[in-house]
Amino acid sequence: MALISEFMAVWGRGLLAGIPRPVRRLLGLGDRHGVAMREDDGFRLYQSVDGEPRDRGKVSPDALAATARRLSGSLVFCLAAKDVVRASTTLPDQARRTLAQVIDVEVERLTPFRRAEVEVAYCTHDLGDGRISLELGVVRRTHLLTVLDELSALNVHPAYIATDLAEVARVESDAIANPAAPPPLGGAWRRAAAYVTVLLALAAVISPFVEQDTRRRAITAAEVVARPSIEQAVSLIGRLDRAEARAAVISGFGLAGGSRVAVLDALTRLLPDDSHLTRLAINGGGLELEGQSSSAADLVARIGKSNLFANVAFRAPVARDPATGSERFHLALEIVQQ
Hints:
Elements: H1 2-17, H2 21-27, E1 32-39, E2 42-49, E3 52-59, H3 61-69, E4 74-78, E5 85-92, H4 99-110, E6 118-128, E7 131-140, H5 141-153, E8 160-162, H6 171-174, E9 176-177, H7 187-251, H8 258-270, E10 275-283, E11 286-293, H9 296-304, E12 309-314, E13 319-320, E14 327-335
Parallel strand pairs: 1-4, 4-8
Antiparallel strand pairs: 1-2, 2-3, 5-7, 6-7, 8-9, 10-11, 11-14, 12-14, 13-14
Helix pairs in contact: 1-7
């Protein structure tokens, strides 16, 4: 839960960083820091909003920790002016590219200290004409550690050390970070929060299309599974249609009597699926059959094996239908009386 809370806090800060400062002030969402500085025998507290300090009164050392926790944002401890050595210089604008190395050189050139002996807060200003000004606030490292030890004894652990109140406005970039405090959450976290926000927004836009695509794929998969059954059903429907067509051809001849029913039943069973009748004529004890079959000779052989028919013969030459590829036949046969 602590990790989630921390991430949500960083996320919120990252989003706020993208809002123009005047708008943040109008909405009461400016960058906030609690600021403490020593004053006589106690501490003066400020609530800084976008670098503008608001006095929150003076507290005793014993009340500093509890009161500082009620201030919004990370805590900044501001050093007294007597504890800071200040220096400034003018540099060419190209110095920004190697500013850390330039500061190391300028500290030793402008102050009586070696770079390894001090901690440095700094800020730069663009002067135009290709020049910048560099302002340094230099604190002896031994003195800074003494101050941090005193604050730690009061259960106060500032995230940053500022050399003046004006520095609070740029505290995350220019002030001295407290090495004993947890590392501050900087630009990388803010960028990560912004990326997560963009990804969530994209997910909200894309998810309906992804859901539609998933449904389409599921329907397609179901069609693939069901296709054999569908084809089998279509084939069965075709066979039924052909059987109904045969029955319609035969039923139009006004047959009556038990023997004629037996003749129709026999013809229905003898005609294969690839054969159908287009004409059936009864002439006394004989039949004439016209229709189409994939093999007229095989059909004659099938009918000739039945004990209901005899003397099966072609009445006309077999001709192939160019449209269907089937053979047209005209047969004559006799009905065997039972």
